[in-house]
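User: Hey, my collaborator sent me this sequence without any context and asked if I could get a structure. I don't really work with proteins. Can you help?
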Amino acid sequence: MKRLEAIQEAAYLSTGNTLQYRRIMRIFYREYEKMHFQLYEREVLSLLRACPGFEEYPAQKLKQDLRMLVEWKNLIAVQELKHVRTIAEYKNRQFRYSMTENAVEIERLTVKLENRYRESGNLSSCYLMRIEEALMDMERIKSASTRETGQWWRNLQEDFQRLNQNYQDYLSEFYSENSDKILKSVEFILHKDRLVTYLKEFVQELRVNASRIEAVLKEISGEQAAEILERVVLCERDILFPGSKDKEAVKESVRENVFGGWAALRQWFLSETEPSECSRVLEITDEIIRKIIQNAALIVQAQSWSVSRKNDYQKFIRLFRECEDLEEAHCLAAHLFGIQQVRHFRVCKDRSTESIYSSTYEEEAMEFWLRPRRRRHGSRLERTGFEDKGERKKSQRREYLKRSEEELYTVTQYIQGGCLELSKIEGKISKETRALLLRWIETAMLSGSGRGVTESGKFYQLQRTDSRCTLHCEDGDFSMPNYILMFGAREDGDI
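Assistant: No problem. I've predicted the 3D structure and written it out in structure-token form, which is a compact way to encode the shape of the chain:
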């Protein structure tokens, strides 16, 4: 393993004169991006004096700064001898300066760090779909070429890293110092609904895609994964370190990275010993949604309260102005403000609406009987016998079974040759039939293996096609993927 040493090229980032060194290096980097790789001292001085705060920068000071940057291996100085005509010109050496490769990478990193606050993560499901496709393509990688295997692994790791980084960047915005101020501001109410919809769609997509990836990972055995990962190790070693003398040491280092990346990918989606990272993301997102809704409700409630009190006080002023004499005003004041024992009771009465924008003053009046809770006073209990509800329960059970049998019979009509394809269902179906089909699909997807069993004990295998279909229901059209349910025999015997 290479010994970790101090990076001399990064010395200019943390010195007493860091400001001027960084300004000079930023000038070189901007010119480097313009394909202007070499600069004379006079050119650097002209560009430096064009920057705010460096208008009167001394030329001698710049010469010292350039010398230090050359010593730190940030710049390369090449003497210009082409136009030298006299000994004096030779002694007053003119240099052309250019950035080293390490200095270019350091400046590129600083620019990225400076602009990091402008970048906002996004919760896109495209990475999840590409990860699923890559995992399903593992069987083909066994016989792929070295270049193709390496490209497959790098694409998989890049998508996984982008997925992980994006959700961390996006969700971290809600835990920053300014997040509470933003969420509690009145202006946030205007964007609340769109943000909540965005987060809910992300949660739904994550649940669906993550469940499919989890099912694919469970089908990949340890031996199969180890065989493919060993091919990846050889490919990465030959591609990244083609001329290395100590190939065994390089191979072990690459193997550690490859197997570690695969373990991190499995841990992100699978919950073996601890909860998966995917489940944590779902919990955090649900918490954020609840927090957003609660803050919005508090803001609306505060606004409604202030408005209602303002209207009350305006009405009180009008009543006082209409008083005929001082005595009447005293009576009115005693009636309005003289109540000393005001009590508010918390009740569990259902509201007429669930809207957070509705005020309690708009609700209809309610009556509640208050009884004293003293030892000597209590409500009289009436002694009654037990009521036999056996017949009612049997009747409800018969109705439920009859309804279930009718639903099963209706769905059975769509099964042809042991196959039920959603796109081939003709006519309109009831809400109950749609709910039954969706329940079967959900059961198979959550099982991990794509298998399920109906209420009548029939086993089936769920298959998903690339096409989509539309179910015509009594209450509207329902667009969804074209699933196929195969009814037949299990691997361990007939059904």
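In plain terms: The beta strands are 39-40, 75-79, 95-99, 419-421, 451-453, 459-473, 476-487. You can pass these tokens on to your collaborator as they are.
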